[in-house]
């Protein structure tokens, strides 16, 4: 089953982006992935869950929030 997982992640330097890409590439059964530095958004497509993406990002010391939740928080004020 193909899922699209979108996460809000703080992408503040090139080293962070490299760590995130390296971690995401290790997830099994992914089809595509994208890191949008302007939106601080990571998108992973494939047989993957939000929990899997959060777990691999936590291993590289990055906090991830579901994209929907992140947008609700930004626009709540």
Explain the layout of strands and helices.
Blueprint: E1 3-9, H1 14-25, E2 30-36, E3 41-46, H2 50-59, E4 64-66, H3 67-75
Antiparallel strand pairs: 1-3, 1-4, 2-3
What would your notes on this structure say?
The chain is of the alpha+beta class. The protein has one domain (3-66): Alpha-Beta Plaits. It contains three helices and four strands, in the order βαββαβα. It has helices at residues 14-25, 50-59, 67-75, and strands at 3-9, 30-36, 41-46, 64-66. A four-stranded antiparallel beta sheet has the order 2-3-1-4. It is globular. The mean pLDDT is 87.
In short:
By secondary structure, the protein is α+β, with helices and mostly antiparallel strands. 40% of the residues lie in helices and 30% in strands. This is Heavy metal-associated isoprenylated plant protein 36.
User: Which percent bin holds the helix content?
Assistant: 40-55%
Q: What is the beta-strand fraction?
A: 25-35%
Distance, first to last CA: 37 Å
**Secondary-structure element order, N to C:** EHEEHEH
The shape is: globular
How many domains would you count in the coordinates? Answer: 1
Task: Extract low-pLDDT stretches.
Answer: none
What CATH calls the topology is Alpha-Beta Plaits
Number of strands: 4
Mean pLDDT comes to 87
Main sheet strand line-up: 2-3-1-4
CATH architecture: 2-Layer Sandwich
Total helices: the number is 3
Radius of gyration: 12 Å
Structural class: alpha+beta
Report the sheet with the most strands, covering strand number, pairing sense and barrel closure: 4 strands, antiparallel
- By CATH reckoning, the class would read Alpha Beta
Pfam family, one: HMA
GO molecular function: metal ion binding
Protein name: Heavy metal-associated isoprenylated plant protein 36
Keywords: Metal-binding
């Amino acid at each position: 089953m193909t899922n699209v997982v979108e996460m809000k992640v703080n992408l503040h330097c090139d080293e962070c982006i490299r760590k995130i890409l390296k971690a995401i590439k290790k997830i099994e059964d992914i089809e595509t992935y994208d890191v949008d530095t302007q939106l601080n958004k990571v998108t992973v497509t494939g047989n993957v869950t939000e929990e899997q993406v959060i777990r691999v990002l936590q291993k590289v010391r990055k906090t991830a929030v579901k994209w929907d939740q992140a947008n609700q928080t930004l626009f709540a004020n």
